[in-house]
Write a structure and sequence with these properties.
Strand order of the largest sheet: 3-2-1-4-5-6-7
Structural class: alpha/beta
Strand content: 15-25%
Radius of gyration: 22 Å
Largest sheet: 7 strands, parallel
Low-confidence stretches: none
Mean pLDDT: 88
Oligomer: single chain
Shape: globular
Distance between the termini: 26 Å
Number of strands: 13
């Protein structure tokens, strides 16, 4: 068992309550790993906040459903703004009246940073896990973060610079996915796990229109139409599509039923990583999945689309012109991205063809960069994050 770094264990044992909030399934994964490691350092601590199934399995009491924060886009947020603000007021009141020793906000910056500011004003130590994209859009948010957050845990090294410049304590802890995913994932074994044995399929393409309802709404039909184009040009192609949950599956099935001459797409419940590993090429929504695609090391086409109003707002606030994590890490366009008006079935199909017709040299060069970054991000993130919090608490805690 990992030993505590505290010379005086009474310091560790004095931490009895940790408040923690995750905003979606990826945060639930990070939170579960973090809680598991923090319990080794703070054996008397209880955990409460907003948690998914994984965090709850580690002993975190969830005061609201995880799905209550899983909302994207200007219009969807505005529709639920009164509910979200009440939730934040209630949590603020609860933790001011019964203060935790520390608060950890995992991602969900629009919700968590505001809560952190109120708690920090009450001398509650605040930690934010997963840097907001201040390097991508709305850079002046760093001033609000400085007022709200005592410690920032970054996933990627390029994120640290802005926190160093603004004198905000920070650590780069790497990414848990880099720890979990092997350097090579066997394609044949992944296909066997998924029951893919179609001898007539020359290639397998994985379709991933996103885990959120809004992503499926804006990308699902385009991805189906893209599959139709691929099937027409490459009839010996098999399509698989991992579904994040039953709601997304129902959405996608409805779109398929509404599509004339819909292609045959094998829907898989979960198992997104196996679906990626089983495939020769991926077509996916922008997001954390693009990092997973890099770590699984498959050629990828990234697409994204939001509502017109949301896009006009976001476009005015952006300070970068790339979104896919592999491109951000490498600081060059490794994989194609098709955003908003560029996100059409014809354009996606053109990028798919470019990959399929590649002689292999382009992919080998890109794969080498993927392998380099996989190694850099492999830091045993759960342990690193817990150790970072513990060391920082030793120097700065109450």
């Amino acid at each position: 068992m990992q030993t505590s770094p505290f010379a005086d264990n009474t310091v560790a044992e004095s931490v009895t309550k940790i408040a923690i909030i995750a905003g979606e399934s990826s945060g639930d994964i990070l939170g579960a790993g973090l809680i598991k490691e923090l319990k080794k350092h703070f054996p008397n601590a209880t955990f409460e906040g907003i948690a998914g199934d994984l965090m709850q399995a580690e002993g975190c009491k969830s005061l609201y459903p995880l799905e209550s924060l899983a909302v994207m886009g200007i219009v969807p947020i505005l529709k639920r703004l009164p509910e979200l603000l009440k939730m934040r007021r209630d949590l603020t009141k609860r933790w001011i009246e019964s203060p935790p020793d520390m608060f950890i906000g995992i991602d969900a910056p629009e919700f968590n940073i505001g809560l952190e500011k109120k708690l920090k004003a009450q001398n509650i130590k605040t930690i934010h896990y997963v840097s907001p994209s201040v390097w991508a859009w709305r850079p002046k948010r760093i001033l609000k973060i400085r007022k709200a957050t005592d410690l920032m845990l970054c996933l990627f090294p390029f994120e640290q610079d802005i926190y160093q410049r603004h004198a905000i304590d920070n650590f780069c802890v790497g990414h848990p996915l880099a720890d979990q995913i092997p350097m090579e994932m066997d394609k044949t074994e992944a296909r066997q796990r998924l029951g893919i044995s179609d001898a007539n399929a020359k290639r397998v393409i994985c379709i991933m229109p996103g885990s959120r309802g809004s992503e499926m709404k804006f990308l699902g039909q385009d991805f189906i139409e893209t599959a139709k184009l691929i099937q027409g040009y490459y009839p010996d192609t098999k399509f698989i599509a991992p579904m994040a949950n039953q709601a997304r599956r129902q959405q996608f099935e409805a779109l398929l039923q509404e599509t004339t001459d819909a292609p045959d797409i094998q829907l898989v419940d979960g198992q997104s990583r196996d679906c990626m590993a089983a495939s020769d090429l991926l077509v996916m929504a922008s997001g954390t999945a693009t990092l997973e695609a890099m770590l699984v090391k498959r050629p990828t086409v990234v697409a994204y689309k939001v509502g017109g109003f949301s896009y006009q707002i976001f476009k005015r606030l952006l300070i970068i012109d790339t979104f896919a994590i592999p491109n951000l890490l490498a600081k060059k366009p490794l994989i194609p991205e098709l955003i908003q008006e560029e996100c059409t079935p014809d354009n996606i199909f053109a990028e798919v063809r470019a990959w399929l017709e590649d002689d292999g040299q382009r992919w080998q060069e890109i794969k080498a960069v993927f392998e380099e970054w996989h190694d850099k991000l492999r830091k045993n993130a759960d342990v690193y994050a817990a150790n970072s919090i513990t060391q920082w608490w030793l120097a700065n805690g109450r």
